[in-house]
């Protein structure tokens, strides 16, 4: 394959370049900074999307004219705030969090951000909550426990409107995704998820690898054809 004439990537510069882009284009405001600090102080895993990634989600929401967004995996609500801000006043993010302690942190952050009126936070196991939901949703962000990703995909397809977008986080996992014999349940969950997406005629999909402050990871991006 022909390659552009760039010097080889330097992993140590990934974070600096991420900071350059996020400071320039989509910096966290005081509310988002405070939310991330609260998440860290509350012992939540550092699994929030980055600023550049959060802005990417917001732009997809705007591109599809989203009014109804479904997020599977709230964590502390960082991406929820980014998504809610991208919606019109009558928009809603339905976001699901299995861990009640994480949900409490998220609720504080959503209130601080003033987006609580646009967010419907459901506390419970995602598979249980999803059973009770009706569509249509314009954008669905899958970012919870990876072994259940195949089940989350089935719900996402059921709940998505035609021409919706489905985004899955963490599909690269530092490159581990290509290890078919991996004993890591997260890797296998992601691989099954990707294979189901690949064979699903209702979806047109691609993947976006990302490097930056979150290391080497990436998204799967699927468009719902019908
Ligand atoms: C993991 C999960 C995430 O959602 C994330 O963004 C990063 C890592 C994990 O389970 O390892
Ligand atoms: Mg994630």
List keywords for this structure.
226 residues; alpha/beta; 23% strand; globular; binds 3,4-dihydroxybenzoic acid; binds magnesium ion
Can you give a write-up of this model?
The protein has 226 residues and is an alpha/beta fold. The chain is globular and about 50 Å long. The chain starts with 10 loop residues before the first helix and ends with a strand. It is built from eight helices and seven strands. The protein has a seven-stranded mixed β-sheet with strand order 3-2-1-4-5-7-6, sandwiched between helices. Helix 5 links the parallel strand 2 and strand 3 (119-123). The mean pLDDT is 96. The chain has helices spanning 11-25, 30-41, 51-63, 78-85, 100-113, 126-131, 149-159, 185-198; strands spanning 68-72, 92-97, 119-123, 137-142, 160-169, 203-212, 215-224. The chain binds 3,4-dihydroxybenzoic acid (DHB) and magnesium ion.
Summarize the SSE layout with pairings.
Elements: H1 11-25, H2 30-41, H3 51-63, E1 68-72, H4 78-85, E2 92-97, H5 100-113, E3 119-123, H6 126-131, E4 137-142, H7 149-159, E5 160-169, H8 185-198, E6 203-212, E7 215-224
Parallel strand pairs: 1-2, 1-4, 2-3, 4-5
Antiparallel strand pairs: 5-7, 6-7
Shape: globular
Strand content: 15-25%
Pairing-aware structural class of the strands and helices?
alpha/beta
Please state the CA-atom Rg, rounded to the nearest Å.
Answer: 17 Å
How many H/I helical runs? Answer: 8
Q: N-to-C terminal Cα separation, in Å?
A: 34 Å
Question: Residue share in helices?
Answer: 40-55%
Low-confidence stretches: none
